[in-house]
Amino acid sequence: MNIAIVGPGAIGSLWASYLTEAGHQVNLWSRQPAAKLTIQRDQYAQQSLLNNNTQALQQSDVILVTLKAPSVLTVLSAIAKHIDQDSIIVLMHNGMGTAEGVNALLPNNPLLLATTTHGAYRPSMTQVLHTGYGQTLLGAANSQGELCQFLVDVFNHALSDVTWHSNINQALWTKLAINCAINPLTAIHQVTNGELVQPHYQQQLQNIVNEVSLVMNAEGFEIDVNHLLQTVNNVIHATSNNYSSMEQDIAHQRRSEIDFITGYLLESASRHNIDAPYNQALYQAVKKIEQSW
Ligand SMILES: NC(=O)c1ccc[n+]([C@@H]2O[C@H](COP(=O)([O-])OP(=O)(O)OC[C@H]3O[C@@H](n4cnc5c(N)ncnc54)[C@H](OP(=O)(O)O)[C@@H]3O)[C@@H](O)[C@H]2O)c1
């Protein structure tokens, strides 16, 4: 297939490399002006891919968008005129809230949402390291997207394990809940995920998760608060040495994805008239840090 990767950072370069290896014709859309970019994954051979080629983008069967959430709508608006209405758009990022805007911008395109637990790190512009194997979930965000389940086989063949989720929003909300718990706390206090086992953080996690589960229940997802807290703690243990993406964004003075994580939760809480003071305080604390730069 012809596959475009829009935003070939760490996770996008990882997929670009695996999809190329699987035999697909991959092109990139990046901020780099070069007509071709090189990607080397781990110790494997370098791959040279077309970059910012409007014809290749237009002919893409699949457009995998691996931008961070705050950039998605800006970048897709700028390139919408080069996107064929049959191209399948796949959004793969942390947080929620971009699908509505993309559906409005490209109403005829099949739209899929993806979430992945693979780990990728880009030590330089041309290198990507596959730092952890994980799973990828894929699901439809509009009726045209429902017809694209076959993409699971395409993606699975390139980088397993990929599964189809008939209610991708449920999976994304669970991921959002985990992100709401771990990301702001680790970002504000600049600590590893593992530090959150300390008793003073555990109390805060309980408060955050209580509010998140109220909102999720109001959104129609049956969620048990104790089970959710257990899930959060399982992730904390499994990733104890890791710094969350929000911790890293704040450490490097980059705009974080807080608006699409805690911000998205707060919008939903407000729609359902639910008070969420703990999450509100975390949201404001992260915003205050960002505004201080
Ligand atoms: N990395 C992981 O292990 C991992 C795992 C799971 C989920 N995720 C999620 O995946 C998403 C992407 O993460 P990432 O780690 O891959 O981030 P990243 O390395 O920063 O990748 C984002 C890419 O988007 C590019 N970009 C920004 N503005 C652009 C524009 N106007 N036009 C074209 N490209 C543009 C950036 O370009 P520059 O290179 O020029 O800055 C960068 O290459 C995030 O939501 C993250 O939370 C990441």
From TrEMBL:
Residues 167-290 form the Ketopantoate reductase C-terminal domain. GO terms for molecular function: 2-dehydropantoate 2-reductase activity; NADP binding. GO terms for cellular component: cytoplasm. The keyword DNA repair does not apply. Pfam families: ApbA (PF02558), ApbA_C (PF08546). One of its GO terms (biological process) is pantothenate biosynthetic process. The lineage of its organism: Bacteria, Pseudomonadati, Pseudomonadota, Gammaproteobacteria, Vibrionales. This is 2-dehydropantoate 2-reductase. Belongs to the ketopantoate reductase family. Catalyzes the NADPH-dependent reduction of ketopantoate into pantoic acid. Its EC number is 1.1.1.169.
